[in-house]
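Cont'd.
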Amino acid sequence: MAELLFWPAVLAYGEAAVAYAGNVRYPVLGRFATWGVRIGWLIQTALLVWQAVRADGFPWDTWAGSLNLFVWLVVGGYLVWGCKPRYRLLGLTVMPFAAILLLASYVGGGAETDGSRHLSTAFLVLHVGLVLAAFAALTLAAALGGLYLWEERALKLHRPGLLRLRAPSLLTLETLGLRTVAVGVPLLTLGMIAGFVHRASLDPQIVVTLVVWALYAGFLVLRPRGRRAAYLQLAGFALVLTAPLGLLATHLS
Amino acid sequence: MRLALVGTSHKLAPVEVRERVALDGAAASALAHELGAAGLEAVCLSTCNRTELYVVAPEGEDARAAASAALGRLADDDLGPHLYRLTDEAAALHLFRVAAGLDSMVPGEGEILGQVRAAYEGGACGPVLDKLFRGALHAGRKARTETAIGESPSSVSSAAAALAQQVFGELDGRNVLILGAGEVGELAARNLVSRGANVAFVANRTPERATALAERLRSRPLALDAVADELAGVDVLVSSTSSPDFVLTRSQVEAVIGRRRGRPLFLIDLAVPRDVEPAVGELDGCFLYDIDDLEAVVAESLAGRRREAERAETIVAAEASAFRDWLASLDVVPAIASLREHAEAIRTAELAKAQGRLEGLSASERRTVESLTSQIVNKLLHAPIVRAKEAAALEGVGYADALRHLFGLDEDGRDAHPRRLPGQ
């Protein structure tokens, strides 16, 4: 059953990624991309529900399972505003990433429901859920930052075809990036508090998470603009990548 | 009914010819109604690039002749080589292409759709032209919503405004500084204002000209030496002076960058020689476009419009084809009406003959007999009528003629315009 749901989800995300690439030249493909994202996300939702029903406990406690949940959160976050035609270029950065990570999750067994590991307390479930949701938001913020830098460069270099791409304006990307971080930081804060309640100790994983938190909290306080903001969003994402989801699961088990 | 179009446009006639037949809205409407008074349907579409008369008459030659004569009177001359004459589907397709902006100088330009609507509203429309123009407006809107033909800028000033929107999003409340009070700067400023921007200052070497333009744009005049200082508060600068040297240098802009607190600055340099030192574009948050950059954007944009035009052609062709089917179905309407009338006459006559035998029936039973006979007639006629309408779109009026012949409609004198079947 998991495979019946998993492969269509990967295919839909893959189709969306290809259609987003084609959308750059043929705008009509944007609709196919949007429907690919929607359908893929619904199928992945069904997969997660099926896993939750079948599993004895929290089914995403492995690195691969966490990755599965993480991809679902990223695509879900993207769906909030990413289906608008103006944000289709952003889909080009998010959907290939989502398709590849979901595939990696499958290879690592993230679509399975068996296994004996369970999360011991509700706090831990909350901890994993909130931290993953925060990381998903920060990933989207990084994608927005990346798109900002690309578009800013295109404007600086006077690329004549830029207007044809119907990308969001620079200020829109900047504002949206700030808002996304503003959603991610409270989630990360709550997730960390939940983790500390469970186990008040410092390990490398927690240190990295603290650094990520400090960087984004500083971002919210200082509110940098333009290129600086985009670079910070990307730097924060690089730190998120150094906090491997597997470690997260490991220190929970 | 036959539709005819006679007209001239920028494709066939130079401006000296077009101006002789150009009409304003009221005159175009008057001409249409003059033809309407003669029992025709007529709409006159007159813009700076075209004057076209759409006329509907029972016979195609009558429609063409009436339209040609009306245009000839306008020009006081024979416009022969400058006129195009189209009928039925070709005329419909032409109007649909016009409404979609496919026949315009700049593909996809948006003004024409409003002009087609105005012509339609001022015309002497009957059922055919009403259907035609509503279809054209629909096709024009559809081409614009389903393709990007009308989206990208087609002039330097609109390209500048579109690029400013690419930086700021909506331009509502964005402050613009105009440097140079010439026509070029004013045109760019008006384009920005039409998108919501606010012209904060107008600076010019001659203060009187700055004041005059500032008044026209509801703005404030500014001394040239105060421009650099005011840059801290503006979002867009449009420069088009005739100065031989740079009017704005990198060091001047650099000095105010800190006070802008990271807000982007969009600079449009329309002057030749350039007013803004190119190195300004290297500064963080500064986006500088000169006239060549903007012309490259326009060229790319027009190429994009031409690509989109191919898709729009498919859309208007489908709409024109639907109109052709509808128009063709009109040809069988008289035959169908005659057939219904003939059938009803037979039904009522037979009921009258049977009157004596039906006398014993109650009122309710009589209604049942009436209803039953009507239903039989309707069911018998349903399939031939539907097929005749369908066939009219594909094969012309052959089926209508066959109906007349088979049911003897002509012999009863019910059809005012009998046709002969092929071979008769």
